[in-house]
Amino acid sequence: NEWMLSPFSLFPQVLLLAFAEDLECIPGFQQKVFYIEQPSEFTEDQPVLNLVFDDCQGNNKLNFEVSNPDFKVESDGSLVALKNVSEAGRALFVHARTEHTEDMAEILIVGVNEKHSALKEIFKMEGNLGIPRQKRAILATPILIPENQRPPFPRSVGKVISSEGAEGAKFRLSGKGVDQEPKGIFRINEISGEVSVTRALDREAIANYELEVEVSDLSGKIIDGPVRLDVSVIDQNDNRPMFKEGPYVGHVMEGSPTGTTVMRMTAFDADDSSTDNALLRYNILKQTPTKPSPNMFYIDPEKGDIVTVVSPVLLDRETMETPKYELVIEAKDMGGLDVGLTGTATATILIDDKNDHPPEFTKKEFQATVKEGVTGVIVNLTVGDRDDPVTGAWRAVYTIINGNPGQSFEIHTNPQTNEGMLSVVKPLDYEISAFHTLLIKVENEDPLIPDIAYGPSSTATVQITVEDVNEGPVFHPNPMTVTKQENISIGSVVLTVNATDPDTLQHQTIRYSVYKDPAGWLEINPTNGTIGTTAVLDRESPYVHNNVYTALFLAIDSGNPPATGTGTLHITLEDVNDNMPSLYPTLAKVCDDAKDLRVVVLGASDKDLHPNTDPFKFELSKQSGPDKLWRINKLNNTHAQVILLQNLKKANYNIPISVTDSGKPPLTNTTELKLQVCSCKKSKMDCSATDALHIGMTLILLSLFSLFCKSFP
Q1: What is the per-residue pLDDT for 165?
Q2: Which of 238, 277, 593, 638 has the most beta carbons within 10 angstroms of its beta carbon?
Q3: For 694, phi and psi rounded to 5 degrees?
Q4: What element of type H or E holds 14?
Q5: Rounded to the nearest 10 degrees, how much is the dihedral formed by the CA atoms of 542, 546, 548, 553?
Q6: If you average pLDDT over every residue of the chain, what do you get?
Q7: Digit-coded pLDDT (tens) for 527-574
Q8: Are the CB atoms for 409 and 423 separated by under 8 Å?
Q9: Cis before 479? omega within 30
């Protein structure tokens, strides 16, 4: 059942006759690659095939090593099974070593179809001759070299043969590893065709080299080739398995069924994945802690899956020493055999909590005391929960289920302690109820698992006692409003206030006082609460805003210490026509040669309210003398215009003007408008050195003249 890749063994008569003169002893296996058909079973102590190894120096201290420990090589080169083996994998590697050399042979285990396919691929069977024919004169059989060979170097690894036999013909080798990086690994004897390697190879760096061989004559002309020469590096178990994806953390829910998968551990081996050098097996070396069982978990030796192996009862987070387990996982190559290399990693497994314990109050009844009128937290309700803290299975949610019709109480969870903080949010009144009883339940944020329910311990009663406090009197209503006319007589009654004491059981008396009276207009009877005026109320006062005057009063009970209540009084003041209108502006200027004799537009204003303001009536006082000098025209309800009837000389003139409002009775105010007549030249107005009050002097002279005439008829 054995057959070889080498053409020497397939067709020895043809090739040995052709190349007998070129054959010489090459150290190592005389055949490096074998193909054998996969039997149903390798029988114990039955030879599988014969290997021929020759170091060309007597094979002193020859030793064989087989990659599969179920096989060995006898001293005569026979490969035998140490026991009945039904599955040996896809390949076996035999390593031979003597004092002078070492080599590697590969035994490929294939089916019948694979054998014929391999032959056709290698020898390119042609025609019906039934004999393989090399297309070229160069015979370059594949070379297999074990990695990590020890010195000395260079060492022979194969030979290229040419059938041309031309005189002076030379072999030349090229490709990656020769004249391409990495350069200088391989070289060829240009005369004999012997191929040698100059240093140890690393399969994990480069697994295959594709070289080319050609033959040239003395002149350098290529007479054959190039022909491909394949060099394969045979793997050795020189890489430990490595865990590269850490940290490894897995989670499993407490109470999970036996066989629940927690996580998968995967190691990497840089060796050839098609050999046992990279065939990994997993094992748990150590578990910490070892309770409640030293074997809480199992790892699938081939897949690396970690699963639980204890019953769900033992996988109880609340009874464990710690919810965290650490497993030291070992990965070993060579299928887990003792000769395999190992690598380790730590897997951390966390036992996750599920809500299998309801929260329970530490007491069935809690007590609290609160003063009436006070808000805030009055008691903290404590609960116990065996589930994992800071999870939804532990965090408590409190609900008041009875005794809170007025929504005076609220309860919230303290996120640090998980306690229920019961608060008063609406002030309590001792006189209404001195005692309150609340029924409170507690649940978790997460729902309980189906077979667990909340019990009686998940509800509690809170008894709340309200303490009486001396409360201040209360004004009714508050604020108080009243409407009065301004300017009412001093001593007039504004309002009688009413304040009551909420402490109905204490029978206290109340006295009144003024708290804030910005204008000082009011007083209050300390006994009966009657408010009167001490000054005239003025709607136009700066203390009045939007016609409203505001004052504050106190009601003080006779408690010890006394309590005070504050009442607010808003007085809306009705307007009275008590303000004369005012005129603006009171100064005007005009040029003595002005063409436009409209001197000024006058406006009137009044502090009172409508209808005690506009429309205003504007009038000039009676003008003396033969000629009228000005007149006033009304423009609208609030404005009028003064117009000169002729140009006047440069002087100052005082014009008396009266303005009357529309109140009942109306009020009139007379104001003098000062008119300056100035000289105007080159767009400049000069009002200096005007004659002294020209109109005033004229009036004086006229008066004196009149008196003189009366004295001398």
Answers
A1: 60
A2: 277
A3: -60, -45
A4: helix 12-19
A5: -70
A6: 86
A7: 999 999 999 999 889 999 999 999 999 999 998 889 999 999 999 998
A8: yes
A9: yes
Give the span between the Cα atoms of 418 and 398, in whole angstroms. Answer: 10
Q: What is the pLDDT of residues 38-55, one digit of tens each?
A: 888 888 888 889 999 998
3 state SS of 229:
strand
User: pLDDT above 90 covers what percent of the chain?
Assistant: 56
Do the beta carbons of residue 317 and residue 353 sit within 8 Å?
A: yes
pLDDT at 121: 41
pLDDT over 70 for what percent of the chain?
A: 88
pLDDT at 166 over 70: no
CA distance to 574, 597, 604, 641, per residue, from 636 (Å): 27, 20, 11, 10
Contacts 24+ apart (CB under 8 A), 447-454: 447/355, 448/355, 448/356, 448/358, 449/354, 449/355, 449/356, 452/355, 452/356, 452/357, 452/358, 453/358, 454/358
Distance CA 284, CA 295 (A): 9
* pLDDT confidence of residue 397: 97
Query: What is the phi-psi region of residue 15: left when phi exceeds 0, alpha when psi lies from -120 to 50, beta otherwise?
Result: alpha
b/e 377-404 (16+ beta carbons within 10 angstroms → b): ebbebbbebbbbeebebbbbbbebeebb
Whole-angstrom distance, CA of residue 324 vs CA of residue 348 = 7
Amino acid letter for position 380: N
Q: Which two tokens stand for residue 428?
A: 């309590």
CA angle at residue 118 from 105 to 145, to 5 degrees?
25
- The span from the CA of 347 to the CA of 249, in Å, is 6
Answer yes or no: are the C-beta atoms of 377 and 464 closer than 8 Å: no
How far apart (Å, rounded) are the C-alpha atoms in residues 67 and 308?
35
Q: In 276-323, which ranges are E strands?
A: 281-288, 297-299, 305-308
Element (H, E) at 93: strand 91-97
Tokens of 549: 């005057």
What is the spatial distance between Cα 61 and Cα 57, in angstroms, rounded to a whole number? Answer: 11
One-character DSSP codes across 624-642: PSSS--EEEEE-SSSEEEE
* Tokens at 361, concatenated: 């109050």
Gyration radius of the chain over CA positions: 61
Contacts of residue 548, Cβ cutoff 8 Å, sequence gap at least 6: 570, 571, 572, 573
Largest CA distance in the chain: 188
Residue 378 to residue 473: CA distance in whole angstroms: 26
Task: Express the helix, strand and coil content of the chain in percent, nearest 5 each.
Answer: 10, 45, 50
Residue 407: pLDDT band (50, 70, 90) is very high
Domains of the chain as residue ranges with CATH:
28-110 (2.60.40.60), 138-234 (2.60.40.60), 242-352 (2.60.40.60), 360-467 (2.60.40.60), 474-574 (2.60.40.60), 582-680 (2.60.40.60)
pLDDT in tens, 9-23: 333 333 333 333 344
Arithmetic mean of pLDDT, 704-710: 38
Taking 70 as the threshold, does the pLDDT of residue 612 lie above it? yes
Residues near 248 by beta carbon (within 8 Å), at least 6 away in sequence: 263, 265, 329, 345, 346, 347, 348
Phi first, then psi: what are they for 120, rounded to 5°? Answer: -65, -40
The strand pair at 248-253 and 342-352 is best described as parallel
pLDDT score of 164 more than 80? no
* pTM metric for this prediction: 0.49
Residue 310 clears pLDDT 50, i.e. is over it: yes
Q: Distance (Å, rounded) from C-alpha 516 to C-alpha 527?
A: 18
